[in-house]
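User: Teach me something about this protein's shape.
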Amino acid sequence: MPNSLCLLHASPRKHGNGAAICAAIASHLAQRGFSARLVHLEAEHIHPCTACGSCAENPGRCIYDALEGDLARQVLESIAQAPALLIVAPVWFYGPPAHLKALIDRSQLFWEQNGGPMQGPQRPAWNVLTAGRRKGERLFEAGSLILRCFERQMGFAPKEGLELRGLDSPGDFSASAEAQEQLKAWSAGLKWA
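Assistant: First, the predicted structure itself:
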């Protein structure tokens, strides 16, 4: 669907808090007549960038595109073509999980292909970040900065996201009426094209 928001589930857990949050967002959007295309970022299918320089020598090409099972290009192209982007990710050690960072690093091929950030109208992007910890003044700061830089590079304008604390075990979001209400209220403001 061309007008579907790309909903990137960036947790390695397929059935944890991130999955429950993605399902809730999709439901909230559907109630308002919007749609979301869920992309689950599979950790085992993203080969990390090795800074080989191949994408600089051959703009738009990555040596790992031909690697059997590697889905980085497919995910990045889905993101690049989306009218809007929403990333749901846990915070680990104050940053994104390794496979999400690997995907971000692999987006260098778009930078090389375009000679910088993608051009054109800036599409909206949001992040929902979760953390097991309840305290920490700067808990989301590093992860948010990394994601905003990635989003800008891919042609998006980062918008105000949502940060949810105290979601550690897989069922914590589903058991928290407060977190569910926060997400519902926040997602009411999501709109694009």
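Now, about its shape. Strands lie at 5-9, 36-40, 85-90, 123-131, 156-158, 162-165. The chain is about 40% helix and 15% strand. If you'd like, I can walk through any region in more detail.
User: That's plenty for now, thanks!
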